[in-house]
Design a protein that fits this description.
The protein is of the alpha/beta class and 326 residues long. The chain has helices at residues 20-24, 31-38, 52-67, 91-99, 115-128, 152-155, 204-208, 218-240, 257-266, 278-281, 288-299, and strands at residues 3-12, 17-19, 42-44, 76-80, 105-109, 135-141, 161-170, 175-183, 191-192, 215-216, 249-252, 307-314, 318-325. α3 crosses α4 and α8 (218-240) crosses α9. The structure holds oxa(dethia)-CoA. Oxa(dethia)-CoA binds next to α2, α6, α8 and β12.
């Protein structure tokens, strides 16, 4: 049995920026409200001719370079996304083609903001059992094309971007030590885009009702998010044989600074051990954790030997936690 670990990461954003001041001109909101309720100051926004796979490919190329691998070395590409280029084929397959990963299978995981943790959890067991050797797990989103810019409670939160990680067999005692994913579909309507699927289809009525855009009961999600991320974090640390005191850094999904602060407080974690980049990037759903991971590895915030906890929560609802020794 091999341990699976992360051996290279990368990230990419569209160059377009939507600031809180820009949003003040679109909906009835203020920089003060957005900053104090979410911690967000700006988010990246794709141009009309930009789409999800392009950012996934850019992030993946960086991750491959850092891992010292070529696209042909990869056996599996998982793209976690809620905002695919199109319904079919999968964005993972489109990324596979754009990378020239001729030996890989490409596929998508639909688990909203927990998608990256879903991806590494699936890949970890495949590497551990020797079914595959090298995998790319990508979180890529162009959420701003699914955001309703007449709904001030959602449009201020989401931003675009992609992060990628190459997973491979690593030495004993290193890599992913514990990982788990969960979902509860009874919360379907807490965060959903009801239009465009086989239930409602795409009709003049669904368009008029704006059913193709995200709808969110933010307040309802807030409490479940804090509880779920804190619980699964403790459970995974326990499974890996560690306590919160052993952790060098926590990278939570960047949903809302207040959610991050509440999770940190439940876990008794000091501020400096909890990473946040939400002010510059907003909530990028499945991309937020791999983007943050790449930032931390590049800046030296995560060093060889560090114990890192990842935890996510998203629409579905879905959640997950992973403990990694770098
Ligand atoms: O990514 C994972 C899934 N998503 C989440 O986990 C999101 C979790 N939820 C949140 O981040 C927060 O609930 C929001 C940021 C979405 C909303 O913050 P809140 O503190 O929960 O606000 P609220 O929904 O309770 O609304 C409070 C007030 C309302 O006004 P009234 O009814 O009190 O008069 C809203 O209409 O704030 C109003 N409001 C706004 N005001 C100015 C809502 N959005 C805005 C806005 N600007 N953008």
């Amino acid at each position: 049995m091999n341990n699976a670990g992360i051996i290279g990461t990368g990230h990419a954003y569209p160059s377009g920026i939507l600031s809180n001041a820009d949003l003040e001109k679109i909906v009835e909101t203020t920089d003060e409200w957005i900053t104090s309720r979410t911690g967000i100051k700006q988010r990246h926004k794709a141009a009309d001719n930009e789409y999800t796979s392009q950012f996934g490919v850019k992030a993946a190329r960086q991750a491959l370079e850092r891992a010292g691998l070529t696209a042909e070395d990869i056996d599996l590409i998982i793209c976690a996304t809620t905002t695919p280029d199109q319904i079919m084929p999968s964005t993972g397959a489109l990324i596979q083609a754009q990378l020239g990963a001729t030996n890989a299978a490409g596929m998508d995981i639909f688990a909203a903001c927990s998608g990256f943790i879903y991806g590494i959890t699936m890949v970890e067991s495949m590497i551990r059992t020797g079914q595959i050797r090298y995998a790319l797990v990508i979180g890529a989103e162009v959420l701003t094309k699914y955001v309703d810019y007449t709904d001030r409670s959602t449009c201020v939160i989401f931003g675009d971007g992609a992060g990628a990680a190459v997973l491979a067999p690593v030495a004993e005692g290193k890599g992913i030590l514990a990982t788990k994913i969960r979902s509860d579909g009874r919360y379907e309507e807490s965060l959903y885009a009801p239009g465009g699927g086989t239930k409602l289809g795409t009709t003049h009525e669904t368009i008029d009702n704006r059913d193709h855009f995200f709808k969110m009961k933010g307040n309802e999600l807030f409490k479940v998010a804090v509880r779920s991320m804190a619980e699964i974090s403790k459970e995974m640390l326990d499974k890996a044989g560690y306590t919160v005191d052993d952790v060098d850094l926590v990278i939570p999904h960047q949903a809302n600074q207040r959610i991050t602060d509440a999770v940190a407080s439940r876990l008794n974690l000091p501020e400096e051990k909890v990473y946040s980049n939400i002010a510059e990037h907003g909530n990028t759903s499945s991309a937020s954790i791999p983007i943050a991971l790449d930032e931390c590895l590049r800046s030296g915030k995560i060093k060889e030997g560090d114990l890192v906890l990842l935890t996510a929560f998203g629409g579905g609802v879905t959640w997950g936690g992973t403990v990694i020794r770098f």
